[in-house]
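FAQ: What does the model actually see?

It sees only this:
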Amino acid sequence: MEYGLLLDYLNALAVNYLVYYLVTGFFRAETAIWRLLFAGGIYAAAETLEPYLDVDMLLLKAILSVIGILVSKEYFTIGEFLRFAALYAVLRLTLTGAENFFYDVFGAENNAFGLVISSSVIVCVVLFKAATGVRDARKTRALEPKVEISAGGKFHSCRGYVDTGNALYKDGKPVIVVSGRMAKKLSLSAEDSLTVSTVSGVREMPLTELTYKIYSDKKTHKLYSSYAIISDKMEVRGYDVLLHKDMLN
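And it is asked to produce this:
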């Protein structure tokens, strides 16, 4: 009997963990596993002990749902809480509908619903992580594209980064930043200068014109011809080229 109750609780915990995981994941909220386990655990306890409790279960579950949402994330604004609560309610209603459909098809005596739903936790988490990984990889690729600079009659591969704070223009063209090390390697020479405001004050930076390619994937690229300032302060960033904010794919 005790083992059956424990199994019911673990199934309920897995299902409720999944609900809170999907809610926080949908809104990309920073959370911790213990928060989701606690939020799902208190609701799962009420579900498991429901036959033994002489209380208004609808009210109890509503209270535990609010507590669970508040625990699932460290800080909420009123708007965030309402959005979380709305999605949570939709998932709860969907889950209830799926449960009712299951019992209508397989019979009320079939107790496999909790096991079926709880086993989907692993699948959903894996799929969610995979989708998140693909999204993050695309975001990283967009911010850190491969760049090829034309010099000496051929294109040279560089490590680029789209600096969203770079809003420099000259003659209506975006201005990129090339590291002093890369400029020396490619034998780039300054043809002019550009006044730039930096954290250390206003400076005159050496300026040159470049032709370069920015790759959005291994084969697809855009060809640019614009100005570039040469900076000896870039090496600490670990990039060869700081691209303009307008060049974010």
